[in-house]
Amino acid sequence: MAITAYQKCINPDCGAEFDRTEAIFKCPKCGDLLDIQYDWSRAELPAKMEDFSKRWANRNQRLDFSGVWRFRELLNFCEDEHKVSIGEGQTILQQNDFIAKELGMDKGNVHLQYEGLNPSGSFKDNGMTAAFSHASLVGAKSCACASTGNTSAAVSLYAHSCGMKCTVFIGQGRIAFGKLSQAMDYGAQTIQIAGDFDDCMKQVQDVCTKLNIYLLNSLNPFRLEGQKTIMYRIIESLNWQVPDWIIVPGGNLGNSSSFGKAFKELKDLGLIDKIPRLAIINASGADTLSYLVNERDLKWNSGWVETKEINSLYADFTAKKFSPHTIASAIEISRPVNLKKCLRSIEICDGLVIDLPDEEIKDAKAMIGKYGLGCEPASAASVAGLRRLVQDGTINPGEKVACVLTGHALKDPDITVNYHTKREGVLSNPPVEVPNDLDKIIDIIKA
Ligand code: F0G
Predict the structure, then answer these.
(1) Does residue 126 surpass a pLDDT of 90?
(2) 378 in ligand 1 pocket by Cβ < 6 Å?
(3) How many CB atoms lie within 10 A of CB 166?
(4) Would the CB of 289 count as within 6 Å of ligand 1?
(5) Single pTM value for the model
(6) Partners of 283 in beta bridges
(7) pLDDT (tens digit, 9 = 90+) per residue, 319-342?
């Protein structure tokens, strides 16, 4: 299969191109974000998306088993021998009629994409399998990332699976225990900085440049190629129908960036006939995207983004020593690195952004636990977003919706236990305290 991938700067005034074998992560000419592009005219593609389903029959072959590499023609940037896989992407799309009913949606129209079922327990594995394959292609020996927790868990797991040295940067007190436990357990060097995610993100970029370490944050455009497959699996589960809406939490904005790219490519290639609308949900305590889009009218504008709006907001953050705060620690980010690409996705998908308070996110999380397979707080922002968008009439009950549940319920047990035991919300379900006495236990169960 001819490999036609190359890297290209997204800035229309620059547009510099680089070989796929370079590990650069930002345009060396202008500092803007890089995209992976393909010469599709030379690509060997299936005639229709359904053709990918044939690979289910070859599940004993590692690349056909992977829920990412099963779609390899759509992210064809390296030879098979470099492709790293630990069995990622075996995730499911659950039709959840209980939640549909709770939210006033029609039966059959609410779907939850459980990315917490990945090997490291979050959607990150979709991106890591791709980025580590690129790391293998360029011969990287050590890697690093900054993280609110899930990236560090996924990086640590893939790194030890391919024998790479790994350093993860986390903000002190800013990471859920499930995630911290993974980084330590998988053998990563864990650097805890007295700062937040945005501080870690800055440090890791400087460290990677100085020490020539391979960077695995979503600045890495190869990661985003892997994350496109979450969308392929959603439409595969819907029997190759495109839903009306995709709803996703927004943090560093890698997912939203890659989803728009995925749909644009499929539409341009004639493999789908419509593009779903995209709703991105910020937590109100980390609402940079929502503020810039809704209050400052920031747009993609064919790549000519009004950067002075962004710079002035960030200068304000610095002046006020602002640090974001939300119980959804995974999306506690105030300077999202993929902001511009996300604006592009909003344009491609006729998208929108809202931000929601922690209380709504926590109640939605409890609902996903009660009626579904559960998820971590940030993931529940998607269902909380659906509730809001149904209430305000943006989404109507007859539309088909897929909410991406980005991380596993056990990532952040503290938030769950507090919600229930401290009776923080409408679905709190605390344990009942009883004496060690059979009659009293029976009385309570029968009551
Ligand atoms: N949901 C979960 C569970 C996450 O861990 C993240 C990001 C997001 C949503 C936001 O996704 O960045 O693509 O908009 N976590 C990163 C990390 C930042 O370091 O683990 P995004």
Answers:
(1) yes
(2) yes
(3) 25
(4) no
(5) 0.98
(6) 356
(7) 999 999 999 999 999 999 999 999
